[in-house]
Amino acid sequence: MLEMSLRKDRVIQNLYDAGCEEALIHRFIELWEGEKEEAGLRLLRQHRRELLDQIHDGQIKIDRLDFLLYSIRKQKTEEGLI
Fold first, then answer.
1. pLDDT tens-place string over residues 11-48
2. Are 12 and 29 in contact (CB under 8 A)?
């Protein structure tokens, strides 16, 4: 079995805290207990990539809003409204 310094309940809690859904948690525990360490780690790395993609998508949206706010402010300044 995969040696982990954390107890099973702590691993599960950490996965919940990391935003993992129950299906992913159950699958990881199955792999972990089934001595399929690499498959379990791949599963977690994939979830991490998905979370990072969400962050990147959010950053793009923020950048676009920032540009719009900048453009509006600049136009108002040029028109002497600010």
1. 999 999 999 999 999 999 999 999 899 999 999 999 99
2. yes
Q: Are 73 and 82 in contact (CB under 8 A)?
A: yes
Q: Token match 């991490």: residue? A: 48
Residue 82 token pair? 């600010």
Indicate the pTM of the whole model: 0.74
Mind spelling out the 3-state secondary structure of 57-75?
A: HHHHHHHHHHHHHHHHHHH
Query: Apex CA 17: angle with CA 36 and CA 6, to 5°?
Result: 50
Tokens matching residue 50:
């998905």
